[in-house]
Every structure is written in C-alpha cells, then in structure tokens.
Amino acid sequence: MIEYTDNILEINPDELNGFFVNWQNPPSSFKHYEILKNSDIVIFAVDSETKKVVGFINALTDKVLYAYIPLLEVLPDYLGKGIGKELMKLMTNKLKKFYAIDLCCDEDLEDFYRSFGFQKVSGMVKRNYQNQNGEY
Ligand SMILES: CC(C)(COP(=O)(O)OP(=O)(O)OC[C@H]1O[C@@H](n2cnc3c(N)ncnc32)[C@H](O)[C@@H]1OP(=O)(O)O)[C@@H](O)C(=O)NCCC(=O)NCCS
C-alpha cells in the first residue's frame, strides 16, 4: 500500500534513493533531502511495506501570490499506478489559495498537467548545468 505524508520528519535521507532518473549530474540523497527540507511544502509517497520513499513533490512559494512546483517524480518500479496523480492532487489542494501555481514540463506531460487545470504558456528558463547536483 502507498501512504502519503507531508511531514519530512518522518523521512530519513537514506530513504531517498533512485530519484533524478536521466539527470546527468544528479543531487546526492543528502542534497535531495536538503532541497525538500528547504521547500515550503513537500509530499512523499511511501511504500508501507518497505518504508521507502517511492515518489515526492515539492513547492516553493512567496506565501502570498505565487507558488512553483520544481520537482515531481515517481520511482520507475512504481510508475503508472496513480501515485503521480495523487501527489499532484494533494499538492494542488494545498496550494489552492495561491493566485499562480507554475511549473515547467516536457511536452509529453502537458495533458497530465492539463487534467489539473494547468494551461500552456510561453516561458523562459536559464540552467547552469554545472550546478545541477547542488554541490557548489
Ligand atoms: C510524471 C510522473 C510523476 C507521473 O507519475 P505516475 O505515478 O507514473 O503517474 P500516474 O500513474 O498517476 O499517471 C497519471 C496519468 O498521467 C499519464 N502519464 C504519466 N506519466 C506520463 C508521461 N511521462 N508522459 C505522458 N503521460 C504520462 C498516465 O498515462 C496517466 O493517465 P491516465 O490517468 O489517463 O491513465 C512520472 O512519469 C515521473 O516520475 N516521470 C519522471 C520525472 C518527471 O518527468 N517529472 C515531471 C517533471 S515536470
């Protein structure tokens, strides 16, 4: 069974393994934990049998108007079981008072996010790939 929690105190850094699939220079589990600890809101999906984190989503906010969802990921063995959808449902519910909820995604995920009321806009981003692992 998959359980969901927004309490990072229930999670140990060593339970965060296997994420950042296909990232060239991924953050370590320790950095991953730091990212989530510093986020305004984080929700974890935990396999109740293994007690391992199998999915997560985080959000950064200005606490008034704007919220941004930088990361959402489900481990490869757990894809296609509705976990990503549930994490997005829980997060958009927590963020419902905000004027804007923004995120970036690949084109193949546009329909996934449209189903939560998101719309496509034009955007600009800058990426310093040498800093991708958070070690700087
Ligand atoms: C995106 C992601 C979190 C979805 O997680 P998931 O648990 O497999 O998703 P769900 O099982 O809840 O699927 C929900 C719906 O989204 C669709 N979907 C899921 N992943 C998709 C993908 N990569 N491309 C297109 N559609 C996708 C499913 O087909 C499903 O549609 P349905 O409700 O019509 O059946 C997962 O694919 C993932 O971790 N991807 C790698 C990291 C990533 O791309 N994160 C998003 C950054 S913006």
Detailed description of the structure:
The protein has 136 residues and is of the alpha+beta class. It has one domain: Gcn5-related N-acetyltransferase (GNAT) (Aminopeptidase, 3-Layer(aba) Sandwich). The protein is built from 3 helices and 6 strands. Strands 1, 2, 3, 4, 5 and 6 form a 6-stranded mixed beta sheet that branches.
Brief descriptors of the model:
single chain; 21% strand; alpha+beta; binds coenzyme A; Aminopeptidase; six-stranded mixed β-sheet; 136 residues
Number of helices: 3
Number of strands: 6
Estimate the strand proportion: 15-25%
Q: Compute the average pLDDT.
A: 97
Integer count of domains: 1
Q: Please identify, by name, the CATH architecture.
A: 3-Layer(aba) Sandwich
Largest sheet features: 6 strands, mixed
Oligomer: single chain
Class by helix and strand content?
alpha+beta
Following the backbone from N to C, one meets helices and strands in this order, namely EHEEEEHEH
Shape verdict: globular
> What is the CA-atom radius of gyration, in angstroms?
15 Å
**What is bound: which ligands?**
coenzyme A
Could you say what the CATH topology is called? Aminopeptidase
**CATH top level class name:** Alpha Beta
Show unreliable segments.
Answer: none
